[in-house]
């Protein structure tokens, strides 16, 4: 077999891999010395998951229920145990390199696979792969800690390669590549990225279908689509443990909708929604003109945290304003005003953005030239997919289109942050640029073709520059923050000079972006001209493009990811997870059940650090239970309802002393793990239940909806009755009761019917939603043991699906290899 290998064909690919490896290592060199990134979301995840890891250290597996987040919630999306017959292909593909080197290397490798599927020369494939991997969105999300998003993005091009192979009748190789990367794509665990990619490949499939129908290739269409579906189902099944329990859980979360509308004005009943609230879902929409950040990274100021420097007019005017306002408002208010004034960012992504999706000016220009000049059966679906996802990214700025999608496109209303759809243009632009370069440089009579179409190339670039100039003229450079503008326009403030300097600065930034495009346009035009005149050879031209584009991207990337983002692991641990004196005082309490509300860390409901140490009333998670979110919004935001804290067994509240240091205060009214109530107040709906929670005594009264009345029984309060906690484990809770008459017990545990089962003396019993968010159970007279076990049936079902999918995975891979081997063997047998 080795004799058949043409090393002349292999070494360019090895060189490409070497280039990917060297650039990733050089760019992320601190990782080789053991340093790690400071990543906000990873710190949140460590806080969220510490309880699960503590449990695993004792029991050997992760729990299904997390007691440290939002008074308790499923652990599915935090940390999950399961069994698989598949190795860690991600580690294999990345050569076990440390993060974030592995992320950039993986993105390059997967895109390079795609370019080879399109029969693109290795040097062009290397250029395009580096462009995809080092587009600025990549380092931005890596620094933020969005690792699942990064992995899902990295696997997209390789999965696209597999599908293209299937559609081009290379069934065996296509099935193998599609099955492998469908499994990896879905296992990455970022449904929103996969969803956008699914839209992209759906558009591609429609274009292929039209072609197949016109050319009467119906049999091929059935085979190709069937194999693609098989690969997708195997990938889906292999990740069943992550998908199906989460899908079930999503129905009970804010992503599953709510029938209550809780605002600062009050609470009202609404029709049950099936997804996120529209205004919440359309946060982080991309401003229409911001799409040009693909070619102009700083046209809108970069990131929200990017500030004007000390030499700018805006900064100097702001300092004068600060001196004028000092003492007239609180330091916090002054700081807020100053940050708003000196922030460079003026785009539409609110409430904040970490930076643009810059794809490389040279890549954008080459892609546009490719779409206009080059003939390719792929260019129209690529253009359609790019434009469609750009429209999606506009979100609230193209409301009519996106509201239609929000209400009609399946599952789309489960996602937020429409600007994330720009990952598809990030995928498509370097691919189209590579297709274009392949035709322009390596097609038959390429130089003659270039000379013939050179004017069209000039007109194309000129047209793009004309569009940019029109956008420059039509842009609104004024302050979009109406309240800030109104504040600055007050006569006593006289902030007109600041407003004018901000507008001038914004015009300058956009104009500088156009200048950047002109500069790279000259490079492209001169390079293609010299090649057309045979002054430059193809390798020299492409190597120049590769170096220029990669250096340009790395220079911009360095703004968002550089050596300052790295630190030693022990330093990172100490800076984030060193217990305060308040934490240490609380940790002296070894009781098995109590909760903590941390008001010293800002918003307790976006804080995961407290969850690292304690069973927290707050926490951090993008998909909270909707009943708990309603409870937070109505009872724990603004003026906190102490009765709700008591029923949540909030024994400790962390606040700050006069010096701003955290202190732990004991709440003597916390009701403990469980208690018997004197009576039950029945209400007709969730609305009345949450309203009643606003003014009741949870120690004496339980609030239960009418529909559960048959399960509460007839109670006669017994003042001598007792209920005590016997054991408290994440997935199993036991209580002992003793009463002379039937009682109703309220348990300080969050109501979640999809898996929690109740047993009294080993016999399964009913429990009901109580006090809007807790559990309640009717207890018969006498001595009894109550056990709650979290045992969702979906877990066992999902594990079985994983086993089946894993077996199908290996069968499909083995079958594909056999078919490929058989085809290679056939000529030998024939010759023999």
From TrEMBL:
Source organism, top-level taxon: Bacteria
Coiled coil segments of this chain: none
Positions of transmembrane segments: 95-114, 123-144, 150-166, 171-187, 193-210, 222-244, 355-373, 380-397, 417-437, 457-474, 510-532, 539-556, 801-821
Pfam families, alphabetized: YfhO
InterPro entries to which the protein is assigned, alphabetical: Uncharacterised_YfhO (IPR018580)
Keyword annotations of the record: Membrane, Transmembrane, Transmembrane helix
Name used for this protein in its record: YfhO family protein
Organism: Arachidicoccus soli
């Amino acid at each position: 077999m080795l004799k058949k290998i043409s090393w002349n064909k292999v070494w360019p690919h090895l060189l490409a891999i070497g280039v990917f490896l060297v650039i990733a290592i050089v760019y992320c060199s601190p990782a080789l010395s053991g340093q790690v990134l400071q990543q906000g979301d990873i710190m949140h995840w460590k806080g969220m998951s510490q309880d699960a890891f503590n449990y695993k250290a004792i029991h050997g597996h992760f729990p299904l229920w997390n007691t440290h987040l939002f008074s308790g919630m499923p652990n599915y999306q935090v940390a999950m145990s399961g069994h698989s017959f598949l190795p860690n292909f991600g580690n294999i593909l990345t050569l076990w390199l440390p993060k974030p080197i592995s992320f950039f290397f993986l993105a390059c490798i997967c895109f390079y696979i795609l370019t080879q599927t399109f029969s693109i020369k290795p040097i062009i494939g290397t250029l395009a792969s580096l462009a995809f991997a080092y587009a600025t969105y990549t380092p931005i999300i890596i620094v933020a800690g969005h690792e699942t998003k990064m992995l899902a993005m990295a696997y997209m091009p390789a999965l696209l390669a597999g599908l293209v192979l299937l559609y081009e009748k290379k069934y065996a190789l296509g099935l193998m590549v599609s099955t492998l990367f469908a499994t990896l794509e879905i296992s990455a665990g970022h449904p929103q990225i996969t969803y956008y990619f699914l839209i992209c490949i759906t558009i591609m499939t429609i274009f292929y279908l039209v072609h197949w129908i016109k050319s009467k290739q119906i049999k091929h269409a059935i085979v190709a689509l069937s194999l693609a579906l098989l690969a997708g189902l195997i990938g889906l099944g292999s990740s069943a443990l992550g998908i199906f329990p989460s899908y079930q859980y999503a129905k009970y979360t804010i992503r599953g909708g709510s029938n209550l509308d809780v605002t600062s004005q009050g609470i009202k009943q609404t029709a049950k929604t099936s997804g996120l609230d529209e205004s919440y879902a359309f946060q982080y929409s991309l401003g229409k003109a911001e799409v040009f950040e693909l070619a102009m990274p700083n046209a809108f100021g970069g990131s929200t945290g990017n500030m004007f420097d000390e030499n700018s007019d805006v900064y100097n005017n702001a300092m004068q304003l600060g001196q004028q306002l000092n003492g007239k408002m609180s330091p916090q208010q002054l700081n807020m005003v100053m940050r708003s004034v000196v922030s460079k960012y003026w785009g539409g992504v609110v409430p904040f953005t970490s930076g643009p999706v810059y794809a490389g000016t040279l890549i954008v220009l080459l892609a546009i030239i490719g779409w206009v000049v080059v003939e390719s059966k792929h260019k129209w679906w690529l253009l359609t997919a790019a434009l469609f996802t750009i429209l999606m990214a506009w979100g609230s700025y193209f409301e009519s289109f996106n509201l239609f999608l929000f209400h009609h496109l399946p599952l789309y209303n489960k996602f937020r942050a429409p600007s994330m759809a720009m990952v598809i243009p990030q995928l498509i632009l370097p691919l189209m640029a590579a297709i274009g370069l392949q035709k322009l440089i390596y097609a038959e009579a390429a130089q003659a073709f270039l000379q013939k179409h050179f004017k069209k190339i000039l007109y194309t670039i000129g047209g793009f520059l004309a569009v940019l100039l029109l956008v420059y003229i039509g842009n609104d450079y004024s302050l979009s923050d109406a309240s800030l503008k109104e504040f600055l326009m007050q006569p006593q403030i006289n902030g007109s000079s600041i407003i004018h300097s901000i507008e001038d600065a914004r015009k300058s930034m956009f104009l500088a972006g156009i200048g950047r495009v002109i500069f790279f346009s000259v490079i492209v035009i001169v390079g293609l001209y010299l090649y057309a005149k045979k002054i430059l050879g193809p390798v020299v031209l492409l190597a120049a493009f590769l170096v220029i584009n990669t250096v340009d991207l790395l220079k911009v990337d360095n703004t968002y990811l550089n050596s300052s983002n790295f630190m030693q692991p022990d330093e990172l641990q100490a800076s984030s997870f060193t217990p305060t004196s308040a934490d240490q005082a609380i940790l002296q309490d070894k009781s098995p059940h109590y909760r903590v509300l941390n008001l010293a860390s800002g918003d307790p409901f976006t804080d995961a650090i407290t969850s690292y140490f304690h069973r927290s009333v707050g926490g951090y998670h993008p998909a909270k239970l909707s009943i708990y979110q309603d409870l937070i919004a109505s009872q724990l935001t603004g003026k906190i309802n102490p009765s709700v804290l008591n029923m949540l067994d909030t024994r400790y509240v962390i606040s700050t002393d006069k010096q701003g240091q955290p202190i732990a205060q004991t709440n003597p009214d916390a009701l403990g793990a469980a208690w018997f109530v004197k009576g039950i107040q029945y209400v007709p709906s969730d609305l009345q239940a949450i309203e009643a929670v606003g003014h009741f005594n949870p120690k004496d009264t339980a609030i239960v909806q009418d529909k559960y009345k048959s399960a509460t029984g007839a109670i006669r309060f017994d003042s001598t009755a007792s209920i005590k906690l016997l054991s408290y484990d994440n997935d199993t809770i036991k209580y002992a009761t003793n009463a002379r008459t039937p009682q109703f017990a309220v348990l300080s545990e969050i109501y979640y019917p999809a898996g929690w089962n109740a047993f009294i003396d080993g016999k399964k019993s009913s429990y009901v939603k109580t006090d809007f968010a807790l559990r309640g159970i009717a207890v018969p007279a006498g001595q009894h043991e109550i056990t709650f076990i979290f045992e969702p049936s979906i877990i066992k079902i999902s594990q079985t699906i994983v086993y089946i999918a894993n077996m199908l995975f290996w069968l499909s891979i083995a079958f594909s290899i056999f078919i490929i081997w058989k085809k290679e063997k056939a000529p030998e047998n024939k010759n023999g």
